[in-house]
Design goal:
Layout (H helix, E strand, L loop, with lengths): L12 E12 L2 E12 L3 E5 L6 H9 L6 E6 L2 E2 L10 E4 L11 H11 L5 H10 L15 H12 L6 E5 L7 H16 L3 E6 L2 H4 L5 E6 L2 E7 L2
Parallel strand pairs: 3-8, 3-9, 6-7, 7-8
Antiparallel strand pairs: 1-2, 1-4, 4-5, 9-10
Helix pairs in contact: 2-3, 3-4, 4-5
Length: about 230
C-alpha cells in the first residue's frame, strides 16, 4: 500500500502523498506514507495518540517539512517556496476564540486581518455551518458542538476547497457528533475535499468514502467504505 504506483493518480485527486517520511532527531514518526484524497470526498485517518496522524496533517498543510517524499495538492507538487498552505482550511490545534465576543465578531476580527474577506462572507459562512449571524450569544456560552462549528467556519472563510480537520469530534457528546457529521456531509455536497482524523473508526465510518489506519507512522490498512 505504501508503493506510490498503487495509487490511482487522476485529475480528481485533491491530495496525493508519495513515500513521505518525517523524523524528529532519531525518532521516525512517518514511514514511507502514501495516500490520496479524491476531490469532493471525505477521507478518514484513524489512529491512537502518537500514531503520527497529526504530524501527517501538519506535513500536508506545510506546518512541518517532511524529510523526504512528495506531497501534491490539486495535482501540483508542493516543495521549496511552493510549500505553503494555499487555499486550504485547517483545524489542527484547538482554535482560540475571543470568549466574550459573538461568533460573528470573532470572524469579523479575522476578516479585518485578511482584506480578501468581506463582511457578507462572514454571514454566509456562519449560515453555512448552521450558526445564526444575528445571535448575540457570547462564545464562552457555546456548547462544544457550536464551538466546533465556529472553528470550521473560521477554517473555510475564504471558501477553501480542501479542509483538514484533526479530531473534530473529540470531546463532543452524541448530539455534538451528530451535528458535525451532518455539517461535514453538507460540505461534501458543496464539493469540498475533506481529510479528518479520529481515534475511533466508529466516529467516522458513516462519513467517509475511504479510511486509512495509521500506526507507529505507517499506514497499515485502507478501507473503501462506499
Amino acid at each position: 500500500m505504501n508503493d506510490p504506483e498503487t495509487l490511482e493518480i487522476t485529475e480528481d485527486t485533491a491530495i496525493r502523498i508519495e513515500n513521505l517520511n518525517k523524523s524528529f532527531s532519531d525518532q521516525q514518526v512517518l514511514k514511507n506514507v502514501s495516500m490520496s484524497v479524491e476531490k469532493g470526498s471525505i477521507c478518514g485517518l484513524i489512529g491512537r495518540n502518537g500514531s503520527g496522524k497529526t504530524v501527517l496533517m501538519k506535513c500536508i498543510c506545510g506546518f512541518l517539512k517532511p524529510n523526504n517524499g512528495k506531497i501534491f495538492l490539486r495535482g501540483k507538487l508542493m516543495q521549496g517556496e511552493k510549500f505553503i498552505i494555499g487555499n486550504m482550511g485547517i483545524i489542527i490545534e484547538v482554535p482560540g476564540f475571543f470568549e466574550d465576543e459573538t461568533a460573528k465578531n470573532n470572524l469579523y476580527y479575522l476578516a479585518a486581518i485578511n482584506n480578501k474577506i468581506k463582511k457578507e462572507d462572514v454571514d454566509r459562512v456562519l449560515r453555512l455551518v448552521g450558526l445564526d449571524p444575528r445571535d448575540r450569544k457570547k462564545v464562552k456560552k457555546y456548547s462544544m458542538g457550536m464551538r466546533q462549528r465556529l472553528a470550521i467556519a473560521q477554517a473555510i472563510m475564504e471558501d477553501q476547497d480542501i479542509i483538514l480537520l484533526d479530531e473534530p469530534m473529540n470531546n463532543l457528546d452524541q448530539e455534538g457528533v451528530k451535528e458535525i457529521r451532518e455539517l461535514l456531509l453538507y460540505l461534501k455536497e458543496q464539493g469540498k475535499s475533506i481529510l479528518l482524523s479520529s481515534h475511533y473508526f466508529e466516529d467516522i465510518q458513516y462519513l467517509c468514502d475511504k479510511v486509512y489506519r495509521i500506526s507507529h507512522g505507517e499506514l497499515i490498512i485502507e478501507k473503501d467504505i462506499l
